[in-house]
Design goal:
Length: 245
């Protein structure tokens, strides 16, 4: 159920660039462009030039989300075993900490190797601010919260093995197959909503306060913004423009 949820959640990965480019993907990786400009209500211009790496981002929505969710579950179980009176928030924090200490180095490695870049970052909350290899700390922090949410689903099971979002299904009088479908949809819905609210939305709002940054090479910014385009890359005083018609 979780894999179905995370795999289908891949479709809104481009939403982090909804208002303005927050992430650049290296265009030399395997990609067939992006479906961004076909998302209803899309604002950021030149969305057709946004690559969506199949082998890195696509597969990460399967292995990374599930693997890190399992790590969070293990960390929460270990914390609760060590401190039985630990509350819900503190237990979640234990899972988040275990995920974040791995997520931050992975994000840093991806940036340093030129696989991704974060052009719209709040300088005060960013490592190496102003450089093309800057890493906004709130990015890994928020994404770790999403991954920990998946781990929390696996942690908070009732005696029947149901997660929080599946409970109450016994009151629905449908067949076994329909019951499984409804349970799956509940898990899928939780993953989609939590990803949008805990990551996509805050990232877009943070992009409104982007600081200055060195120019990016063309294989990262493609033709989304910068020299050779009518759109300025995110930075102080750079207006947010509607997408091209």
């Amino acid at each position: 159920m979780i894999v179905i949820g995370t795999t289908t959640a891949w479709w809104h990965d481009p939403l982090i660039n909804w208002l303005r480019p927050f992430v650049f993907y290296n265009a030399t990786m395997v990609n067939f462009g992006s479906w961004s400009e076909r998302i209803s209500g899309w604002i950021s211009p030149n969305a057709r030039f946004l690559p969506e790496p199949l082998l890195m981002i696509g597969l990460a929505y399967v292995w990374m989300t599930l693997g890190f969710g399992m790590l969070a579950t293990r960390a929460m179980r270990a914390a609760r075993a060590r401190w039985p009176q630990l509350g819900v928030a503190a237990t979640f924090g234990a899972g988040w900490s275990a995920v974040f200490v791995l997520e931050l180095p992975l994000e840093t490695l991806a940036v340093r190797t030129g696989l991704v870049a974060y052009p719209a970052s709040i300088p005060e909350l960013t490592l190496w601010a102003g450089h093309t290899y800057q890493v906004p700390l709130y990015g890994p922090a928020l994404w770790s919260a999403v991954l920990t949410g998946i781990g929390a689903l696996r942690f908070h099971l009732d005696e029947r093995g149901f997660t929080l979002v599946e409970r109450g299904i016994e009151r629905v009088t449908v067949g076994a197959r329909a019951t499984t479908l409804l349970r799956t949809l509940a898990v899928v819905g939780f993953i989609h909503v939590s990803a949008v609210l805990a990551y996509d939305l805050p990232i877009n709002l943070a992009g409104l306060y982007a600081g200055p940054v060195d120019p990016y090479p063309t294989h990262l910014r493609t033709q989304q913004c910068g020299p050779g385009t009518p759109v300025g890359c995110p930075g102080p005083g750079v207006p947010i423009l509607m997408k091209d018609r």
